[in-house]
Amino acid sequence: MAKPSVERAPKFDPAKIDFEKIGKYLGQYDITDAKGNYLHWDKFKWRVPRAEATDIWYAVKFKRYMQMKPLALLSDGKEVFTYCIPHSVDSKLHRIVKLAGGSVASIAGSKAPDSLQSKFLVSSLIMEEAISSAQLEGASTTREVAKKMLEEDRAPLDEDERMILNNYLLLKHAEHTRDDPLTLDLILDFHRIATQGTTENNVIPGAFRESNDIYVADNDNEIAYQPPSFEKIPERLSALCGFANEDHSGDDGCEFIHPVIKAIILHFMIGYEHPFRDGNGRTARALFYWYMLKCDYELFRYVSISKLLKDNPKGYGLSYLYTEKDQNDLTYFIDFQVEIILKAFEELQTYLESRSNEFQQVVKLLETTKYNSLLNFIQKDLVKKGAKEPGRIFTVKEISSSYDVSENTARTHLNGLCDLKLFMNTKDGRKNLYLSPSDLVERLTKKKPTQKAGKFEFLPG
Predict the structure, then answer these.
(1) Superfamily for domain range 98-351
(2) Which of 24, 93, 134, 388 is deepest in the core (most CB within 10 A)?
C-alpha cells in the first residue's frame, strides 16, 4: 500500500532546548490544537506564523516530551518508541471502554437475550471483518459473493477469495489462541493462515522474509519507509513478544499501559518490522484482535476496523509515517486508531439496530400466526431470510457457520421448518438442501402448523 509523502519533523533534543526562544510560546500552545488534533510538523507548520514555526514547534514538542511515556521497544536506529495520551485521546479511550464493556444486546438496543443475539451476529460480523481486511490488501471479490462463499463453506475460486477465507480462519485462530502467550511461532502461525494459497510478492506462508528488497513506497513511487534488516527479525520480534507478554496492568507497582493502547502498539510494530514479504497488515490486525480478546474485551469480536481503514487508506498510511518521521512518537498512530475504533463501534451499533429491527418485523408477522411459539430465534431469522429471498437454498453447513452452532443443531432447525411445511427439503446427490418456497409468506399467514405432537424438539440456540 503506497503512503503519502511526509516531511520529517525538526529533531527535538531536550538537552539543547533554548528556553529564551520558546518560553513565550509555552503558555500559548499545547500538545494539541484547540480542536484536540495532535498535529505532525507536516500540518503544524502551516497553522502557525511561518517565521516562528520552528520555535513554536519546539515549544509544543517540549510540552509533549514532559508527558511522554517510553516503551521497552526500540527503533531500528536504537531510539526508544514513546507515546503520550492527550485529553482528546483519553476521552476517546473512555468511550471505547464504556462501549466495549457492554453487551451485544445493550449496544443493539434489543430486548432479545444476549446469548441469542450473540449466536445471531457473531459469525456474520467476523465474516465482515475478514472480507474488509482482504479488500484493504487489494482483494477485488464483491462483499456479496465473498459472504456467500463463507456461508456456504465452498472452496475459493481464485486468489482473492482465498485471501478472504484465510482472513476468516485467521480471526477464528486469534480467538482460539487468546489465552496463549505471544511467541514467534504464534506470529508465524498467524501469517501462515493469512497467506496460505496466495502468491503475492512471492510470499512464503509462515516464513519470515529473507531479503531487504521490501520497502513501502509513497505516492511518488519514492521509498517512504525501509523496514529493519531481515537478519534482525527474530531478535526484534522476540523483544515484541516480551513486550506483549509483560504485565502492564498496573497491579503490584508494575507499569500501566491501557490494553487498547497496547493492542494498537502491537498492530503498529508488525507494520514497522514488516517481517514478511506479504501479509503484514493482515497479521498485524489479527494480532490487534488477539490482544483485545486476551484482555476480555469481548465486543471486539464484532467490530470491523478494516472496513474503516479501507475507507481511509491515506489516514492509515499517514499515521505510520507521522510516527516514523517524528522520533518514534506513537501518539499519531494511537490517535488515528482510537478514532477508527470509535467509528467502528458506531457502525456496529447501526448494524445491530438494523438487524434487530429486521428480526422484530418477522416476530411481528409471526405473532399473528400459530407458528410463533413453535419457532426459535434462529428459525425465525431463517424465515425472515426465506421471505426476503423466495427460492433461496440453505445448507446445514451454511447454518452451522452463520449462527455458530453444531451441524446437528443446524440440521434440527432446518428439518423443523420442513416438518412445519415452511421450508422444502430436496437433495443434490447425497447432499440435503433446504428451499424457501415462493409462497412462504402465504404459508405463514394462511396455513396452520402440521407438526405432530412430540415429533421433534427444538434445540436451544
Answers:
(1) Fido-like domain (1.10.3290.10)
(2) 134
